[in-house]
Structures are given as C-alpha cells and as structure tokens.
Amino acid sequence: MTATTSTPTPTATSPAAGPAAEPVAGLPADFRWGVATSSYQIEGAVDEDGRTPSIWDTFCRVPGAVVGGENGDTACDHYHRMPQDVELIASLGVDTYRFSLAWPRIQPGGRGKGNPRGIAFYDRLVDELLDRGVTPWVTLYHWDLPQELEDAGGWPERDTAYRFADYAEIAHDALGDRVRHWTTLNEPWCSAVLGYDQGVHAPGRRDFGDSMRAVHHLLLGHGLAARRLRAAGNPPGELGITLNLGTATPASDGEADRAAARRADGMGTRLYLDPLVHGRYPQDVVEDLAARGVTLPVEDGDLEAISTPLDVLGVNFYSGHVFSGTAEDGSTTGEDGLPVTRVVPQGRPRTAMDWEIVPERLTELLVRLQEDYGLPTVITENGAAFDDEPPADGAVHDADRTAYLADHIRAVAAARSAGADVRGYFAWSLMDNFEWAYGYAKRFGLVHVDYGTQRRTVKDSGLWYRDTIRLTRRAAGEADGEQPGGERADGGQASAD
Hints:
alpha/beta
C-alpha cells in the first residue's frame, strides 16, 4: 500500500492543541532543529536484501518479552516508504534528521564485507535528505547487534568492540562523502544494563558482571570506531556519542541520601563520561563495583582509545530523579545486602511511560555537563509518550505532548543562558513506532501512525514544533540583523558547526 500523509487542518495554535507556537528567546538562528528515529523501530523489512537477524528479532520471539508478543518485522514500513517519510520530515521545517543504521543490514552477521543491497538503502536515504535540504545525522548503533555476535558472547566479550569498529568503517566508507555528523553509540547504559543485567531488553540476560563488562566493551568499541573515522578520508565534521542522562538529587542532606544520589550518579553518568572525557573510571564507582566482586576488564591502551576527543555529546533526556538511601521500612540495606538506592516520587505529572515530567532538571543537567565535562551538547532525544486519541477529521490533538515539548525547549534555552553550549534539539520521535519491550502500546511521535494502514497523520504537536522552529529562527535572525535559515554546504540549515 502506498504511504499517505494527512495534514490536519487545525493549526498548532488552536486551543485544543495546547500552548501557542511562539519564538523561544535565547535560541540563536543557527541552532539546530531535528527529529529522531532508530532503524529497528521504524524500518521493518527484517529479512529483505540480505539483512540477517539482530538480537531484537530474537528477543521479540521470547514468550512474554514484548507486550502483546509484538515485533519490528514491519514496524512503520519505512524501508519501503522512505521517500514519503523524508517528504514528511522536510514538511516539519527541521534542518536535521537523526537516524540509525541497522548493523545486520549493513554487515550481515556482524563480520566480513559490507552488504551492497543494504547499504544502497541508506545511500538513497542520505541523498533524499540532502535533496530536501535536511542534514543526515547518523547513529551507528541503536541496539540491533547482529545475533551471530551475541551467539559469540555479545558485548561482554572484548571481540565485539573490534567487530563494531570494522562495521563503523564499512558504514563510513559508504556514506562519509555526504554524511558529516556521526554518533557511535546510542545509550550504552540501556544496552548494558537493560540488556545484560535487568534482562528487559535484548538479549535478555541477567548477570551484573556481564553487564559491567559490556559497559567497558561498548565504550571501547566507541573509541576504536572513533579512531577509525578520524583517520578515514572525509573525516566527520562532528563525531560524538549519545548517552541517556538525568539528574540524581538526594532526598535530604542526610548521609544515606547523599550516598544514594552519589551511587546513582556514578552508575548512570560518571561511569560513562569520566572515561570518555577524562580517560579514567571514577574511583568511587570502581570501589563500589569491587565490593560486588566486579572488576572492569581494562587493558593497556583502552582508556586512551575510549577518550578519543569528541566534537559533541548527544544527550537523551526524559526525566530526573530524587534518591533516598533509606527504604520505606527504614532499612538502609536491601535483601541483596547492598545499600538502598531508592527513587523518591516528586509528585509531578507523569507521561504514559510513568516518567515524571521535570523540565527544570534538563536545565540543571546541561549546566552540570558544561561545568564538569566542557563539551558542546545536542539534545539528541527528548519527547513523551501519551495516550493519544486516534485521528479524527484529519487531526490528532495532543496538547499534553505540545506542552511537554514547549517546557523542555524553554529549559534548553535557560541552560544556554546559564552558560551551557547547547547547539541543537531533536524531538523524539518523528513518528509513532515500535517501542521496544512495550511493543506498539506507547506513542512518542509527532506524527501518528496507523499500523494497520501505515497512514501517517501529523499531530498538533508536530504542527506546533514546525511553527515554533520557524518563529524562533525568524526572531533570532531579526535580532542578529541576518536572514535565518540559510543553506549550508552540507545541505542543512545554518548551525553552530
């Protein structure tokens, strides 16, 4: 069936759509605006043109692993509807599209030469984007490890890092003449912890030691790939990694609560950023791991590779948390003998994912990142799932999502005013898609997808986002005495790079 795109007649400033679109003060004309997706969540076509199974193809077949037993076999059928989807992206007024490559499509089985048929799809996608004036921003790894590499041990095995570097080189050789913005990994915390410790994401393993070994090898893979891309012809204009980050605030000034917040921050933020930026793992985290019988498998030269200089840090933000070191029954040690690290509800509204909405924590996070790590940042994901009503009269009224986006974009502007070098904001997600273990039950999109017909309908939030981008660019350009939105040599709008 041919994809159709429905453009709702109500504007994003209608009362049903929530906040009116208006310029966001503090964001310059060269601020980068985008939308984001990932390969397994939208592409479908899992067994076409030489693609082999990923760990998510396998995990989706495990009874009870995914809500409703659903999978990404078809997803949004983007593999067959790509030109129409690029037209949709361009219609939203964004200058950047962040998407991921499917490793088992580029390099089936995770070893050997590249797959020309799989690479051809991304060739066409990149060309379509550039033809429409949209800059491609490639993520090399968004969780779809080739199943053959998991069968060989997966990310807890050192060899997987080298396999990733090989794959990165293949992808860059194919696309690096046109793609200037490269992200190595998306959210290595999720890959390691949800996949190898908690078992709620692919590959579904539950071993804390393996999880921490996976952390190190993911970071090593990043470093090895970064070195290869730096050494290649057409080196990246911007090279980075994307981390899912939040804030860890102690519930009180008490010692137990401060210790709990320290542990949460150590395992969620510093375990990744300290080696990436400072070339060392945080000593307190190393000691905490040792108390659990775990030693990170660091070999000579690893930390030098991991700390290969970054041009930009991608930040995925959805919430921030308050932590207590005391359980509700008053104990400070859990049944597992470990110190209590408990999330304390803040009494704020929540999304359909049950995540508290705390936009001021995004400002806090970005300022902290600037002070502690000194890297330019781009918000590579921010958005919210809500229980949208189906399209009616060609419209989807999602005032709650519009308000969420408005609050968080203002939080980014506040961080810039406080000195954080934030250069862009990408909404998650372009369209409703396969939401991992939640199947199709959660909708994050600016665009509604009817999975039965694959009809796309721009939601009120998408129209609001489009209008906000246009108004902000115009206001910023007028303030600078310039014409905003000028074309760059890479095909996108003017930006900070």
